[in-house]
Amino acid sequence: MEMNIALLPGDGIGPEVVDQAVKVVKAIGKKFGHTLNFEEALTGAAAIDAVGNPYPDSTHEVCLKADAVLFGAIGHPKFDNDPSAKVRPEQGLLEMRKKLGLFCNVRPTFTFPSLVHKSPLKKDRIEGTDLVFLRELTGGIYFGEPRGRNEQGTKAFDTCVYSVEEIERLARMGFEFAQKRRKLLTCVDKANVLATSRLWRETVQRLAPEYPDVKVEYEFVDAVAMRLIQWPKSYDVLITENMFGDILTDEASVISGSMGLMPSASIGTKTKLFEPIHGSYPQAAGKDIANPLATVLSAAMMFEYAFGLQEEANAISEVVNLSLEKGIVTEDLSEGDKAYKTSEVGDWLVEQLEK
């Protein structure tokens, strides 16, 4: 198979971890006989510095031409520490989601047997956790209008807006995911308070009879925040709106023991994008110490979701699990044992794939 992959390394540790994922993708291409074409483009703070725009038109064109996008991270302290900045890296991320129609963020949470002890939760609570969030990504309060401040600057306002169409397309994807898994779908909302949440619940209730094999639960977002800590194994597929999903998926990500291990996919109307869920971690940039495994696992998701190649995805997951079992890990996971450099972990994974 021929694959055209756009690379958006972004900021901070993004370029370093994407480099390791590319090494692994190339090894998979060689192992399974695929032709891989890569094209790199600017985004985030790097793009602002170069052209003044965090998501330039040239980058958008590269993404549109690609079969899949492999993305690193965006963000830089010079923007975080300047609330008055007119152009910010995060604006590029939102613009990219909007222009590419990336309406569904797929965020799995699962445990690694060799790392269960590193979780902040007790072993008996989390062992065997395997859940996935589908977060609506292009609507809600992050995109709603109007927004702003009053003339005196003493009040600010944001607007949360959802349409039936936006909810339905994500909900249908949630039902389809559940049908392929444990057939349990949880709709996360705040229907006792918010009008948008009531529309979410009504829409899911209307669709549910079309999927009689899926059990549907409806749960308030604050209750889910608690049950994720108390009993994460009780969840399978969860669907929710943009801001709730943003918060809950970060909470869920630490269940595994390290946010540096969780991959994600964003599925859209024009393409599919794959990225680690961690940030740009600028303090580690250029030091060759960042954990690349979440980005490598995002590449595994790319083979599965963008190209339908499960064997290739499994091959990547297997060598990542092996690296964790054998302690071939960066300093965030080394626990006083030898810590490997970012590039060394990438090289080791490639060696295993070549065997």
Would you write up a description of this structure?
The protein has 13 helices and twelve strands. The protein is an alpha/beta fold and 355 residues long. It has a ten-stranded mixed beta sheet with strand order 2-1-3-12-11-4-5-10-8-9, sandwiched between helices. A two-stranded antiparallel sheet has the order 6-7. The longest helix is centred in the N-terminal third of the chain and has 19 residues. The protein is globular, with a radius of gyration of 20 Å. The relative contact order is 0.17.
Run of helices and strands: EHEHHEHHEHEEEHEHEHEHEEHHH
Globally, the shape reads globular
**Which bin fits the share of residues in helices?**
40-55%
Strand content: 15-25%
Instruction: Summarize the main sheet.
Output: 10 strands, mixed
Q: Helix count, per DSSP?
A: 13
Characteristics:
355 residues; two-stranded antiparallel sheet
Q: What's the layout of helices and strands?
A:
Blueprint (H helix, E strand, L loop, with lengths): L1 E9 L3 H19 L2 E6 L3 H8 L5 H9 L2 E6 L3 H4 L8 H12 L3 E7 L12 H4 L3 E7 L11 E2 L6 E2 L6 H17 L3 E6 L5 H13 L7 E6 H10 L6 E4 L1 H12 L9 E5 L4 E5 L16 H14 L3 H17 L15 H13 L1
Parallel strand pairs: 1-2, 1-3, 3-12, 5-10, 8-9, 8-10
Antiparallel strand pairs: 4-5, 4-11, 6-7, 11-12
Helix pairs in contact: 1-11, 1-13, 2-5, 7-8, 9-10, 11-12, 12-13
